[in-house]
């Protein structure tokens, strides 16, 4: 009798597990020649199984929650890394899996980095890939059970800059419905920017016009998506003023914004699972 009960419990557990487990797909962003790319000898590099650099073929890696748990929402996730690499697990796939547990689909963006060797105009490629990521998601909303009005973008650090650039430099077909920014780089102005991200994206001595264009606190309009911001006061890498100035710009344009600041945490804490 007990053996039969144990077998039945095991079967129920396995069936439940299979209902709740997420699925993942890797989809290239572009077919044929990738726009703004040029031939190079670059080969993609992955260090320690988690940090990716020299991206040649940009993709989205899509994690879908079970149909039983799904909310119809999806978030395009932009990992950080100073525009020199991608923290692909702790600010990418780990986040997508966590979102699945809350019924939200996650699409991790492996975007091209602004490198001279593989891009015609380096600063254009990350945003081109982010826009294309949103477009591809909306092409698959029926297949994936997504509400086309619940497509958001989430970015960490330099990925937060990319996410906020997408939220302030969009066309109709690739406008995100909401933004989530975690310790984001927002400005390219020297007072508060992350100098490494600025140099990698814009070069060592950029013109003022391009600095202003990528200073996203200056690009907010009434059509900028509603925004949720997280930052630590003691962040010594990306000063909190990035988030403060963006908050003010959003407020001034009557864009819904929610902001959470924490007294400690520094930079790069991801989900802060090790913080007390």
Q: Please describe the biggest sheet, giving its number of strands, its sense, and whether it closes into a barrel.
A: 8 strands, mixed
DSSP strand tally:
11
Give the count of structural domains. 1
Helix content: 25-40%
User: How far do the termini sit from each other?
Assistant: 47 Å
**Poorly predicted segments:** 1-21
Summarize the topology.
Layout: H1 2-20, E1 23-28, E2 45-47, E3 51-53, E4 59-64, E5 74-78, E6 86-87, H2 89-100, E7 105-110, H3 125-139, H4 141-144, E8 151-156, H5 158-166, E9 178-182, H6 195-202, H7 208-213, E10 226-232, H8 241-252, E11 257-262
Helix pairs in contact: 3-5
Structure description:
- It is built from eight helices and eleven strands.
- With 276 residues, the chain is of the alpha/beta class.
- It has one domain (24-32, 41-262): Alpha/Beta hydrolase fold, catalytic domain (Rossmann fold, 3-Layer(aba) Sandwich).
- The N and C termini lie far apart (47 Å).
Could you provide a short overview of the structure?
The protein has helices spanning 2-20, 89-100, 125-139, 141-144, 158-166, 195-202, 208-213, 241-252, and strands at 23-28, 45-47, 51-53, 59-64, 74-78, 86-87, 105-110, 151-156, 178-182, 226-232, 257-262. By secondary structure, it is α/β, with parallel strands linked by helices. A hairpin with a 3-residue loop joins strand 2 (45-47) and strand 3.
């Amino acid at each position: 009798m007990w053996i039969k009960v144990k077998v039945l419990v095991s079967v129920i557990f396995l069936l439940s597990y299979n209902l709740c487990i997420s699925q993942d797909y890797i989809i290239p962003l572009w077919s044929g020649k990738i726009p703004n790319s040029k031939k190079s000898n670059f080969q993609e590099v992955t260090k320690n199984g988690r940090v990716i650099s020299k991206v040649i073929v940009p993709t989205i890696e899509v994690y879908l929650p079970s149909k039983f748990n799904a909310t119809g929402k999806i978030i395009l996730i932009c990992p950080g890394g100073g525009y020199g690499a991608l923290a692909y697990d702790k600010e990418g796939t780990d986040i997508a899996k966590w979102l699945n547990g809350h019924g939200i689909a996650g699409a991790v963006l492996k975007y091209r980095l602004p490198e001279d060797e593989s891009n015609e105009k380096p600063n254009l490629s990350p945003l081109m890939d982010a826009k294309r990521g949103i477009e591809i998601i909306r092409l698959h909303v029926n297949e994936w059970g997504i509400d086309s009005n619940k497509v958001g973008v989430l970015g960490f650090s330099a990925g937060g800059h990319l996410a906020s650039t997408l939220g302030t430099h969009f066309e109709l077909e690739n406008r995100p419905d909401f933004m989530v920014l975690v310790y984001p780089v927002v400005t390219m102005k020297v007072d508060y920017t992350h100098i490494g991200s600025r140099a990698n994206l814009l070069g060592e001595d950029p013109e003022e016009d391009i600095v202003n264009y990528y200073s996203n606190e200056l690009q907010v309009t009434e059509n900028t998506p509603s925004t949720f911001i997280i930052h630590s006061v003691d962040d010594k890498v990306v000063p909190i003023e990035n988030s403060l100035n963006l908050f003010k710009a959003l407020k001034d344009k009557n864009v819904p914004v929610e902001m959470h600041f924490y007294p400690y945490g520094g930079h790069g804490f991801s989900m802060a699972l090790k913080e007390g």
